[in-house]
Structure formats: C-alpha cells, structure tokens
Amino acid sequence: MMNRILAASLLMASSLPAFALNPAEQKQVGHIIQLFKQNNAQAIAQSIQYPLNREAPLPAIQNAKEMQQRFAQVFDAQLKQDIAQSKLSQWDAVGWRGIMLDSGKVWMNDGKITAVNYSSQAEQQLKKQLIAQQKQNLHPSLRSFKAPVFSFSTQSFAVRIDELQNGQYRYASWKAGQAQSAKPALVLNKGTVQFDGSGGNHHYDFKSGSYSYTVERNIIGASETPEVNLTVKQAGKVILNQAGSLLTNAK
User: Fold this and answer.
1) Is 0.90 topped by the overall pTM?
2) In the chain, which ranges are continuous DSSP H helix?
3) DSSP character at residue 52
C-alpha cells in the first residue's frame, strides 16, 4: 500500500531512462541480494543510508540501531522475498539517481539502500494509529482529512499540510512555536501538488484571493538546500520567502 505522493513517484520512476548494470553495480546489488537471502538484519541495517524516510506520519529511521528495531515493519516477509529472489535483470541503473528494483520499489546508491518505496501491513497499521493520535491532538476544525503530508516550521510560521478525502490538499498555519491544538491563523483548501522533474522534488500550490502560497518539498538538492521552502506572493509579487525544516513530532 502507498500514498498518492509515493504512487506518483513510482510512476515517474518507471518512465526514467534505465540501463543494465555494469560489473561494479552488479556486485553491489548481488551483495544486497545475498544479505536478504541470509536474512541478515544486522548487516542489512549497516547497508542503508540514513535517515531512511517512511510514509508520514511514520518517523524516519535515523540509524542502524533504529533500523534493527523496526526491521520487521519495513522489510516484511513479502519484501524480503522480493529482494532475495530478485534477478539482476530486475535492477536498473538510472544515472546519478542510483539503482532501482522493479521500477523504484527499492533504491540503492554506492552499495547502500537509499529508499524503500513499499509499506507493509504492520507499517500501515501503525500509520493508522499515529493518524488517530494526531487527530486527537489537532484543533477540532482540522481533524477531518485522509492522510497527513508533513508539517514544517520557518522563522515565522508553523505549517501543516494534509491530503483531504477529495484528493485536494489543505494548508493550515500558526505562528512559529504555537501548538497545532490551537486554532490555526490561516486555513487554505483546494491545494494541488506538482512534481518538479524526476528526482522526487514536488511543490504544493494554494490560493486565497490575490495571494498565492507555494510550499516546495525538496527531496534532493545541494547540502544547503532546505527541506522545505515557503513562498507567498501577492498579485504575483513575492512578499515572503522562508526556508523551513520538517517537524517530526508536531503537537
């Protein structure tokens, strides 16, 4: 199971120009396959690039110790089998993006797993529990949504974006540092999402009269690239542009 953003990412990955693995890449992939055949959770945990992001509101896995604790959630019997029984022909090199299994189910780079675009039943169950907890902690006016997307903070604001039941997105903001249980200062509905190229970066657009709000989510970029960027325009003129950081435990 996967959310809308993940599904769109996989669809885009399936259209990327892919090439057969060179000998060095074959060796890297072969090593990972062997670790899964051996079900060597400890060695697999050491062969992952951290943080390993999971679907919101599941927290990212920060290190090998956390990975071992959550190993069965991420790599259930089905995914372990898919990797262990995979053939080299199922893995494709996609330039600087790395190597992908089955059009993006698993990604590798420099011999390490960089992304797992698969969500087990255990993760889905935990996700439901976390969403229920979030709803209880939110202001009552915000408790109706399909799935949380992410929350972030800038110098001036705390912002939460949710996917609604109609497939559109909602933007809610507070003053920086204010709890999400408080009444939001601004709520915008009818938001849309657009993908920026094939690397996973995407942005959300919201409108309110002559004002437009764009939230950029940067998955890849230079070391100085912020995780999120918020831009507000009035009649097409930029009146606010602030970098943001993801909030992993928004309250």
Assistant:
1) no
2) 4-14, 23-37, 41-45, 64-74, 77-84, 121-137
3) B
- φ/ψ of 244, rounded to 5, equals -135, 160
C-beta separation of 95 from 198 below 8 A: no
Residue (of 28, 43, 42, 204) closest to 106 by Cα position: 28
Give 38-69 pLDDT, tens digit per residue: 999 999 999 999 999 888 889 899 999 999 99
Scan for tokens 């390490």, then name that residue. Answer: 112
Distance CA 102, CA 14 (A): 8
Strands, DSSP E only, in 71-201?
91-93, 99-101, 106-109, 112-116, 147-153, 157-163, 169-175, 186-195
Q: Where are the domains of the chain?
A: 4-122, 138-247
- Are the beta carbons of 145 and 162 closer than 8 angstroms? yes
User: CB under 8 Å to 89, separation ≥6 — which residues?
Assistant: 20
